[in-house]
Amino acid sequence: MNTAALKELLYKMADDQLILGHRNSEWTGFGPLLEEDIAFSSMAQDKVGQSYALYQLLHALGEQAPDTVAFTRNAPQFHNCQFVELPNEEYDFSLIRHFLFDTAEAVRFDMLTQSRYEPLAQLAKKIRGELRYHTLHANTWIRQLGSATEESISRLQAALDKAFPFALGIFEPSPFEDQLIEEQLFAGEQALRLRWLERVQTILAETSLHLPDVTLTTPEFGGRNGHHTEHLQPLLDEMSAVFRIDPTAEW
Amino acid sequence: MVVSPTIEQIREWLDEVKDPEIPVLSLIDLGVITQINLSDHEVRVEMTPTFVGCPAMDYMQREVIECLQRRGIDQPVVEINFREAWSSDKISEKGKAALKKYGLAPPPDNSLFTDLEILERAQCPRCGGDNTELKSPFGPTLCRAIYYCHSCREAFEQFKPV
Ligand SMILES: [Zn+2]
């Protein structure tokens, strides 16, 4: 088994979950509705828990313990896509990101249930079940607000236009793409992107929203290689503050 | 190992360990104990989380270890893995009845849960009716969803199918 390829895959997935989980948790106490407040907090808890389980797979492959990996690296050592580190902004942007990212994530874990690396396939089956609630939540709100008032439609459309190049950054090819596919560890970013586009378009077709033209959009790549926006480091500083003061603290 | 129990005995002991979030439900009823293995020198229990991010998992693992130690098993091995993933179908009939009595609607059969439409209604644990509406698939803990019963004019929670 190509361990380097597998680790690269696990790191980017775990980092995506951890960072977006943290962003979701920033809605706690600020959601536009109490239910939305609870929803984003629950999804944050799911995502952080899922990242922890992925870091544990890495730990079993010889990487450092989950807490160390999560709380002691700096931005250039993180492999999340830039999309997840962007600030929450208004609810419309958070909702669009939730929809675009979680759809990709649901497809990714669905594909990973077929992975030849058994511990990952087992975990993927479990996570896939949990993500049904995340995509249900996203699809429900996109359907409602994407065909509601002129204002809700134009705000979501603006958020979608802004988010789209970053969303395409999710699928930045790995240097190990061929090996992952060959060893059937993961069917690859290209296959994932195709299935993602199909699902996203199916939902958007039920609304007044339009997906920007893929062929005319330059994806925001770089995150997978440690190139991040200025927004990631402050998030990491905040996230790891307690750990850096006292690595043995439990909370 | 000081005593040599049977697997059945160990199951009975673990039936006394309750889910910290739903104290009427034992870990056995909840279905999170996936394996019990005995060998000459070891009691080995495997557990799996209800939700990957379940914050109570470490606590439940400690409770299982302490429960076994109280019964004279010196060094039980309690491992958490996803080999046999948890689903809400693993809740026993006794567990489902306990949930209902506790005021929490038990999860519907997960194999029916191919589309999310099944979530739109749940049977109200108070009046037994289904004039109900899903308010949010996310409740106060990861495993609960919030519904509203139009007959009782009150909200209730359901243990989500996963
Ligand atoms: Zn009722």
CATH superfamily of chain A: Ferritin, core subunit, four-helix bundle
What's the story with the biggest beta sheet of chain B?
Answer: 4 strands, mixed
Helix residue percentage of chain B: 10-25%
Order of helices and strands of chain B: HHEEHEHEEEE
Q: Any idea what the CATH superfamily of the largest domain in chain B is called?
A: Fe-S cluster assembly (FSCA)
Overall mean confidence score, pLDDT of chain A: 94
| Distinct bound molecules | zinc ion
Structural class estimated from helices and strands of chain A: mainly alpha
Gap from first CA to last CA of chain B: 37 Å
Number of strands of chain B: 7
Structure description:
Chain A is mainly α and 251 residues long. Chain A has a single domain, classed as Ferritin. Chain A contains 11 helices and no strands. Chain A has helices at 3-25, 34-60, 66-71, 82-85, 91-112, 118-145, 150-168, 177-182, 189-204, 232-239, 241-245. Chain A is globular and about 55 Å long. The model of chain A has no long low-confidence stretch (mean pLDDT 94). Chain B folds into 2 domains: 7-86, GMP Synthetase, Chain A, domain 3 (2-Layer Sandwich), CATH 3.30.300; 103-159, no CATH class. The mean pLDDT of chain B is 89. In chain B, a hairpin with a 4-residue loop joins β6 (144-149) and β7. Chain B has 162 residues and is of the alpha/beta class. Bound molecules: zinc ion. Zinc ion (ZN) binds next to loops of chain B.
